[in-house]
Amino acid sequence: MFQRREGERSNRACRFAYLQLANDGAPMTWLDVSAPITGGMVHWPGDPPVRIDLSSSIEGGDPANVSHLDMSAHTGTHLDAPRHFFEDGAGIESMPLEVGIGPARVIEAAESDGMVSAEALRHAEVGEGERILLRTRNSDRDWAHEQFDHDFVGLSLDAAEHLAGCGPAVVGVDYISVTSPEPEQATAVHRALLGAGIWVIEGLYLGQVTAGDYELICLPLRLVGRDGAPARAVLRPLTG
Ligand SMILES: [Zn+2]
Predict the structure, then answer these.
(1) Set 74, 84, 162, 190: catalytic member
(2) Which neighbouring-strand residues pair with 54?
(3) Which of 41, 63, 93, 221 is placed for a possible disulfide with 229 were both Cys, Cβ 3.0 to 4.6 Å?
(4) How big is the chain by its Cα radius of gyration, in Å?
C-alpha cells in the first residue's frame, strides 16, 4: 500500500504523484467535484448543445480514436472570465493560478425565495481573498444529466452585491450558472461579481461534500482571450 512517510521524497518518487498522508497513515482523498461531460448533457438555454462524436474511430477502420467536441465554453464545470460580461474584460487565460489552487471554504447556503440570499452569506462572514464554494440543494441530484431546471438555486442580486463587497478571490456555485436565465438578473449578477474582480466557478458537483474547509484545485483550460473555459475541480478535506 502507501508506505511513503509524509515529507519523504525520493528522485524516483518525484516522477509519480506525491501522496500526502493523513494522521492515521491513510491517503487523503481527493473528491472530484466536476460535472461529468457527456454528449447531450444539460446546457444553458440558447447555448449550443453538447455534442461529442468520433471524427476517427478504430471501429471504423482508422488507426486511432479521435473525439470531436462541439460545445460552449460554459459547459459543465467551468469558470467565467470578466470577458464574459465586459467587452474589454480579461480573458480566462489570465486567471492567476493561485485563484484556483489553495484553501477553500464550502458553505451550505440557505435560501430565501428559491435563491441564495445575502442574509445567508452575511452569517458566513466571507473574507477578502477567500475561495468560497456555495453548496445548495442543486447538488442533491445529477443535474448535468437532467433537463435544464429553470428553478435552480442561484444568487440573488443582493447576495452578489454582498459578495462583491467582501472581495473573495473566487466564488463557486453548484449549477451551470450563478443565477437565473432572466436576462436582466443574469447580467446584473455576473457584472456585480466579475466587475469586483471575483472569478466565478459554475457547475460544481458538491453532492459528496459538506460544509467545511478544504483544499481546492480548479484550473480552467488556457483558452486565450475567451469568456470562460471548462475546468476540472477537486477538493480535499483539510484536517486539524
Ligand atoms: Zn459560465
Answers:
(1) 84
(2) 67
(3) 221
(4) 19
* CA 80/CA 28 separation, integer angstroms: 29
The CATH number of residue 151's host domain is: 3.50.30.50
pLDDT level of residue 110 (50, 70, 90 thresholds): confident
Which structural domain, as residue segments, surrounds residue 100? 73-237
Residue 124 domain flag: yes
Q: How far is the CA of 175 from the centre of ligand 1 (A)?
A: 10
Cell of 25: 497513515
pLDDT tens per residue, range 181-195: 899 999 999 999 999
How far apart are the CA of 9 and the centre of ligand 1, in A? 39
Is pTM beyond 0.85 here? yes
- C-alpha cell recorded at residue 176: 451551470
- Report the DSSP beta bridge partners of residue 136: none
Place of cell 462583491: 164
Residue 18 lies in a domain: no
Residue 84 bears catalytic tag: yes
| Ligand 1 centroid – CA 192 distance (Å) | 14
Instruction: Name beta bridge partners: 22.
Output: none
What is the C-alpha separation between 125 and 41, in angstroms, rounded?
35
CA of 214 to the centre of ligand 1 (A): 23
In a domain, 183, yes or no: yes
| Residue 218 to residue 79: CA distance in whole angstroms | 9
